[in-house]
Design brief:
This protein has about 150 residues and is α+β, with helices and mostly antiparallel strands. The strands form 2 sheets. A 3-stranded mixed sheet has the order 1-2-3. It has a two-stranded antiparallel sheet with strand order 4-5. A hairpin with a 5-residue loop joins strand 2 and strand 3.
Length: about 150
């Protein structure tokens, strides 16, 4: 069985230059933890995950301690930092050197890569173009429907 047999053909993505606000909106509405990132020519360049977005907005321990130290203070600082970062571009948060698979790759190979590296969603790239994604849920569907 091939990656193309079970991949999601309509991946959630953004383009370089998008704002952190837009990335957070897309993560929220698409209900995926990782957005694929394309350049202005539509070529795949990397991904940005909800982890990177949240981490960018989290205040440091010193910021929380300096702001009062309570959980309410930490949440207030989190919101303030999020508002301050919202209109900045997402580019610095993009992971660019990530594993990818091709549509014609064997699904078993992709599954091994995902499990060995702790990857939840792999970009499926063909000739530099993003053609889909392969998630762990896609792997589970393959087992259920194709066994």
């Amino acid at each position: 069985m091939l990656v193309s047999d079970v991949m999601s053909a309509f991946p959630a993505y953004i383009r370089l230059g998008a704002t952190i606000r837009r990335a957070a909106e897309l993560v929220s509405v698409s209900e995926v933890g990782q957005l694929m990132v394309l350049d202005h020519d539509g070529r795949f360049v990397g991904s940005v995950g909800e982890d990177e977005l949240v981490r960018a907005m989290l205040p440091s321990f010193d910021e929380v301690a300096g702001g009062g130290g309570s959980l309410d203070d930490a949440f207030r600082l989190f919101l303030e930092k999020g508002r301050a970062l919202a209109e900045r571009i997402v580019d610095p948060l993009v992971a660019r050197d990530i594993a990818t698979v091709r549509p014609g790759d064997e699904l078993a190979r992709a599954a091994v890569v995902m499990v060995d590296r702790g990857i939840r969603r792999l970009p499926v790239v063909d000739g530099g173009k993003l053609v889909g994604t392969l998630s762990r849920a896609d792997l589970c569907r393959a087992v259920i429907y194709h066994s």
